[in-house]
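Input/output pair, single chain:
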Amino acid sequence: MAHALDKQIQDYLPLLGSEEKKSLISVIRSFLSLKKEHENIDIEEYNKELDEAEAEYKNGDYVTHEDMKKQIKQWQKGH
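Output:
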């Protein structure tokens, strides 16, 4: 599958103009930037995120399942 996608990219790339290629490069860079942001984190960062989440919970900063169901019903009424 990946080979077929690579082939399509190679086939279409020469058909693009300079500005289109610049836009494509921008999109690719954006994708790679997002991908890098979501890479695996180390154990220290993981534990920090867990501590932050626990603190939010202890401070009451959460939505219960029942409250979320009520909120969804309100959203559905709006449409």
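The helical segments are 2-12, 18-37, 43-58, 65-77. The chain is about 75% helix and 0% strand.
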